[in-house]
User: Fold this.
Amino acid sequence: MNIQTNTPTEQDTRVTEPQLQEFVPATDIHETGDSLVIRCDLPGVAEEDLEINLDNRTLTISGRQQALAEEGFQALTREYPTGIYQRSFRLGRDLDEAAVKARLRNGVLEIELPKAAATRARRIPVES
Amino acid sequence: MNRSTIALNPWEPLAGFRNLQRDVNRLLDLAPAVSRTRTFPLVNVFANAEEAVVVSEIPGIDPAALDLKLIKGRLTISGTFENDVPEGEGVTCHRKERPSGSFSRTIDLPFEVDEERIIAKHDKGVLTISLPRAERSKPRTIPVNAG
Assistant:
């Protein structure tokens, strides 16, 4: 998995393979006092086929699914196609983009963006 | 009467609806795929003379929380997603699109399978079940004797 920061988006792979369908991955986003957590369902996407780009507060995810080798088989039921997952997110200013962490597990991509130190929820002790 | 003028401005009472339909379709295209369907999980079924392969996208589930049952030639896939969003003070949920809770799906298999040789694996969020065809259900050629 590649995490690129502040580099132009590479779109060449998409242009050369127009026959692949694009999908929007189902996504959960939650925020804790310390960070923003984005989870995307990317079934069938291997780490080497996943690209995460963070440029100018825009987070772009692109993951190509590994399709089943169908040679020698007849498709009896085809309820879903395979292709490429694509989605972009506009991030707030209060996140520490340099400290972004990503992991892909069980077909789910989890991206954690820590909040910048200045905007973190902080408990302020009250002196008595 | 100038017929060509009339032809240039045909009366299209449904034009407005067509535009609306196009706009709604465009909105649906933008929505995540998962919200378009209630059926979960979706399955693809492949088969040849030797086996059937059932493939299904179930990302984020613990393989131990998946339950597969074979009853009378029908395969049931069921399971429960763990809630992976922490609860408590200071946690704000901004978006919830991924499936949650329990699911169950039963599908018909194309032929009788050998229960002892079924192999199921869950890799990268994709469940793949290989179901070898039972020997006794394989097609066989019946020789025709000359009378």
